[in-house]
């Protein structure tokens, strides 16, 4: 497949063809079915999970609700240190701690920092703005409860993929206004969704292609997540337009050439740059939305983890250096 000057990775093409053979008509999709199919795909194609020092399931107690969390560490001891708060993707309808377990292990191993994955609420059981409220409240929770889990609230970054990346952007934007306590050290966004754009060139070119994320699937996600509050209370959707210039964190963004949301990532990068934050941006031209769940097929997953991790580590070092310089003054 060749579209817009890009050639698809041959293994990705083979995966598209295989998945088409086992596809089910959208009329028969249910949240339970699609969630199970997503987990099966990860089970088949994500390869062995790396062994790390500890993986701990925890409970995140928020106002009037509790969420499951999973805390990853690849170091021994109980010292308080840095952490990446990670939100999984899945259109706000699918995905969970299991689907992203391998990825979070890889990031914890590569960064040497803790990674906290959050099992935020999903539609249609919990529609907008449930996931957004969970993301913001989890950041607030880290400010007060992080120390109990040996997390330094002043050394936390935020990240996610797809819908989870949109949640990471929301946390960064709201934190920039001083409403969430400490601001993120950095943000790491894997093929982020722009929450308010109606159409882009990449959506027009690619949403009808058989490349996993289709317009049909995006419409299904939307139908299972939007609510009456989506239009009545859109503050969580246009977070960047309300962010405080100069207070957004340095941001790492990855997009894919065969992803209808490719230009969403470009728009997010442009808006964050206009707010005064440095952005490191790259595109994997031959890959697609969702490739991070197929590390057995694509060595680029490990390459991406290293690049993301190096960015997070570097921003921690830069922040620490600036803190020392300020103290010296």
How would you describe what is shown here?
This protein is an alpha/beta fold. The chain has a single domain, classed as Alpha/Beta hydrolase fold, catalytic domain (Rossmann fold), CATH 3.40.50.1820. It is 40% helix and 21% strand. The strands form 2 sheets. It has an 8-stranded mixed β-sheet with strand order 3-4-6-5-7-8-9-10, with helices on both faces. Strands 1-2 form a two-stranded antiparallel ribbon. Helix 3 packs across helix 10 and helix 4 crosses helix 5. The longest helix has 29 residues. The protein is globular, with a radius of gyration of 19 Å.
What features would you highlight for this structure?
single chain, 329 residues, alpha/beta, Rossmann fold, 8-stranded mixed sheet, two-stranded antiparallel ribbon, 40% helix
Which CATH architecture? 3-Layer(aba) Sandwich
Q: What is the number of independent domains? A: 1
Indicate the proportion of strand residues: 15-25%
Globally, the shape reads: globular
Largest sheet: 8 strands, mixed
Query: Roughly how many Å is the radius of gyration?
Result: 19 Å
Give a count of the beta strands, DSSP E runs of length 2 or more. 10
Q: Helix proportion of residues, in percent?
A: 25-40%
CATH fold category name: Rossmann fold
Helix/strand-derived category reads alpha/beta
The CATH C-level class name: Alpha Beta
Span between N and C termini? 58 Å
Mean pLDDT over the full residue set:
96
Major sheet: arrangement of strands: 3-4-6-5-7-8-9-10
Low-confidence stretches: none
What's the name of the CATH homologous superfamily?
A: Alpha/Beta hydrolase fold, catalytic domain
């Amino acid at each position: 497949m060749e579209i817009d000057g890009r050639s698809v990775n041959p293994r990705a093409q083979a995966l598209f063809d295989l998945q088409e053979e086992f596809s089910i008509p959208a009329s028969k999709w249910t949240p339970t079915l699609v969630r199970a199919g997503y987990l099966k795909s990860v089970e088949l194609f994500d390869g062995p999970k790396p062994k790390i020092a500890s993986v701990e399931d925890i409970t995140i107690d928020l106002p009037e609700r509790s969420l499951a969390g999973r805390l990853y560490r690849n170091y021994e001891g109980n010292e308080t240190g840095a952490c990446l708060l990670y939100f999984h993707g899945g259109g706000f309808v699918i995905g969970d701690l299991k689907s992203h377990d391998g990825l979070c292990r890889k990031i914890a191993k590569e960064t040497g920092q803790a990674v906290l994955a959050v099992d935020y609420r999903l539609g249609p059981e919990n529609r907008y703005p449930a996931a957004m409220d969970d993301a913001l409240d989890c950041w607030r929770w880290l400010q007060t409860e992080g120390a109990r889990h040996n997390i330094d609230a002043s050394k936390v970054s935020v990240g996610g993929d797809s819908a989870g990346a949109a949640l990471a952007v929301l946390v960064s934007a709201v934190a920039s206004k001083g409403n969430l306590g400490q601001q993120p050290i950095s943000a790491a966004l894997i093929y982020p969704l722009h929450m308010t754009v109606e159409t882009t060139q990449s959506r027009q070119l690619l949403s009808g292609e058989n490349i996993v994320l289709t317009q049909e699937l995006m419409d299904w996600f939307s139908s299972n997540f939007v609510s009456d509050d989506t239009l009545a209370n859109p503050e969580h959707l246009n977070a960047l337009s309300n962010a405080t210039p100069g207070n957004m964190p340095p941001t790492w963004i990855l997009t894919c050439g065969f992803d209808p949301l490719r230009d969403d990532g470009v728009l997010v990068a442009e808006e964050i740059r206009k707010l005064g934050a440095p952005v490191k941006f790259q595109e994997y031209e031959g890959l697609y939305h969702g490739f991070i769940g197929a590390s057995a097929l694509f060595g680029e997953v490990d390459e991406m983890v290293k690049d993301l991790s190096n960015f997070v580590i570097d921003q921690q070092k830069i922040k620490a250096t600036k803190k020392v310089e300020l103290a010296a003054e």
